[in-house]
Write a structure and sequence with these properties.
Helix content: over 70%
Order of helices and strands: HHHHHHHHHHHHHHHH
Strand content: under 5%
Structural class: mainly alpha
Largest sheet: none
Radius of gyration: 21 Å
Shape: globular
Number of helices: 16
Length: 348
């Protein structure tokens, strides 16, 4: 992958993580629908796009990287948030507290990528990205070994039928439909590597924008809660949005926004993890400042309902800035601890 391609992907991730912040801050219904057409599929898509062929011979390395980069953050941050759960419940963030059996049960759930803490519901993405990447490794290895001359045809055909398999699961009221949808976008990213990055004409951009604008009027669910009637149209519309983001990223790479967007795009995980709790703290402080009574913060969901452009902007900017600041502070703490441990070992 060239430096230009890497920058395009990082900028695209920055664009989509900012769109996620906007979506979670409570925009009006149309803007919400528009964002949710493509912003999460983009992350599955680029993961497939970035798959390296060397992992066919280094399968253990691939699995280790996936576990370290996805499973461990899922478990780590759920455990950290769980430690503060009762404290936050006492301050009316949640409506329940944990006892020791709850803690033991939830720890097991976190280790198995099951339940998440209340401010970490967005981690469904990590669960399904891990599953999609491991399934793709198995499929890609199998087709390469058994059907080498027809590998591309088989993989592309399988990619096209995955939304239909997902629809079948959804019709049977099975939650596994998300596995098929996640794998679809992952494999689509891999299969489209030869065309990603090619410049789109203004005409194609215009047509794509019109399709997305119209689709947002009819598709009113995101990837995680898509309906049976919308899953196939969604799987067709989302790639259009993905390619639009890639083109926007390519054009932004030659502007003064390059450096800040690269920084954001390379630090999406902390934004993904911390923005929701930051939103809730902002809502809590606002309610306290205005002496508004509430039972729990879940009953108010201020940042989900305000629809004020000024308030939405404040949530997004502060959520973004504080998430990056927390990541920076945690990084500094980790470096200090590591240096002290090395110093102690050296002097021992």
């Amino acid at each position: 992958m060239t430096a230009e391609q890497s920058n395009t992907i990082s900028i695209g991730k920055a664009v989509c993580i900012i769109l996620m912040l906007i979506g979670h801050a409570g925009p009006n219904e149309y803007v919400f629908n528009f964002i949710y057409l493509f912003h999460m599929p983009f992350f599955f898509f680029v993961s497939g796009y970035c798959f390296k062929e060397k992992y066919l011979d280094e399968k253990k390395t691939f699995v280790w990287h996936r576990m370290k980069g996805l499973w461990w953050p899922f478990v780590k941050y759920n455990l950290i948030f769980m430690c503060f759960h009762n404290f936050l419940a006492y301050h009316q963030f949640y409506d329940n507290t944990y006892n020791w059996p709850d803690i033991i049960s939830r720890t097991g759930q976190y280790l198995l990528l099951g339940k998440t803490e209340q401010n970490l519901g967005q981690l469904w993405f990590i669960r399904y990205l891990l599953l999609a990447s491991l399934l793709f490794l198995f499929i890609h290895f199998t087709t390469t070994k058994l059907f080498k001359s027809h590998r591309e045809t088989i993989e592309r055909s399988l990619t096209l039928i995955l939304p239909l398999l997902g629809a079948m699961m959804l019709a049977a009221q099975q939650s596994y439909f998300l596995v098929f949808l996640a794998l679809y976008f992952y494999m689509l990213g891999y299969c489209c590597r030869s065309v990603v990055g090619k410049q789109l004409s203004d005409f194609k951009i215009g047509i794509g924008a019109i399709i997305l604008i119209v689709a947002a009027c009819y598709i009113d669910h995101g990837m995680v809660d898509i309906t049976l009637e919308q899953i196939v149209p969604y799987s067709i519309i989302a790639p259009i949005g993905i390619f639009m983001v890639m083109e926007l990223s390519r054009r932004l790479s030659s502007t003064k926004l390059l450096k800040p967007l690269l920084y954001i795009g390379r630090h999406t995980m902390p934004i993904f993890i911390f923005h929701y709790i930051i939103y809730d703290i902002m809502s809590f402080l606002w309610l306290r400042f205005n002496n508004i009574q509430f039972t729990t913060l879940d009953d108010v969901t201020l940042h989900q309902n305000h629809h004020s452009l000024l308030a939405l902007t404040a949530y997004v900017v502060i959520g973004l800035a504080l998430s990056l600041l927390i990541d920076r502070l945690l990084g500094c703490c980790q470096r200090v601890i590591t240096e002290n441990i090395q110093r102690i070992k050296k002097n021992a």
